[in-house]
Write a structure and sequence with these properties.
Blueprint: H1 2-13, E1 40-41, H2 45-48, H3 51-69, H4 71-74, H5 83-89, H6 92-97, H7 101-110, H8 113-118, E2 134-137, E3 153-156, E4 167-170, H9 172-177, H10 181-184, H11 204-212, E5 237-240, E6 243-246, H12 250-257, H13 272-287
Helix pairs in contact: 3-11, 5-12, 5-13, 11-13
Length: 313
Amino acid sequence: MLALAFFTFFLVAFGVPLNGGDSSGVMARDQSAESKFQGIDWSKAVNDCNSSQLAILERASWVAVTEMLNPSNVGSVGGDNDFIFGWFFGQPKRWKTKYNSGVFNRIKNNLKYPYNFVWKGRQPNSNQDVTQRLFYTCSESSTTPTCQPGTNAYVANPAQSKDGQWAVTFCPDYWTQLEYADRLWDKKMAPRVSPSQLNIRRTYEDELICQYMQVDIMGFHNYSDPSDPNPHIGQEWDTLYGTYQPIQGAMLANNFAYLDPGTVNNKTATNLDSYSLFFLAKWVNKKYGGVWNNAQSNYWDAPDPDGVGGSPP
């Protein structure tokens, strides 16, 4: 029965028509994806997303959760030789031996929470089922319309949403400005990859992960600002290259991690793109056969005296 369910979802998510589905191959409006993503409520999406949008959400969710977020695919996190972790959050050895091991451990826990919540429907650090799920929707969920040019998607918490539920709204730009990860990161199209390409090859999947990281009920807390009455992971800002700007993209995330030479930056623990691009980078690295694993490679030459060298290509 489990094998049949998996096969059925595979056909649905990847566009092969099923009996009872519409001609585009997505699930029929009376079918449910709840059994595949225990922490996601699809009831709004099946009513206000069109067939092609549903197909994208199903396929992107499948890859984001079962490939990018799945701990067995991510592999070791925060080890001394985890250069991808070092790129986005700072050298693991420095976190563990010199500075804030508590924030270091929180970052590692944060990297586990989305998979456990979205796929397993588990509360953080628990085998208990979640008491509320995250809604997907293609219509404005916030009491204040938020979709605008340049916004791919947004999260509304219960105080912000029209019906008091956690919801991800997918805006028009989500469908027009992004692409599937396995199309953008195709070895035939891009045989050589560098971290800088993570800035411009943004995907449906890493945008989904970016939204997940803002859903506090998955277990996240803003440890960089203990006084924050509403702790959360969000968009960090800082002055880089003489400009106060949001920390977006792999290059700015790296500079943010090493903002103060010789130490660590606790605020990497609450920056959205640091997390979403960490997962995308791990996925790309595995897809390309570990091209970014070598400490001597110039791919991971962070601006860090304890790091591995010069500057990315």
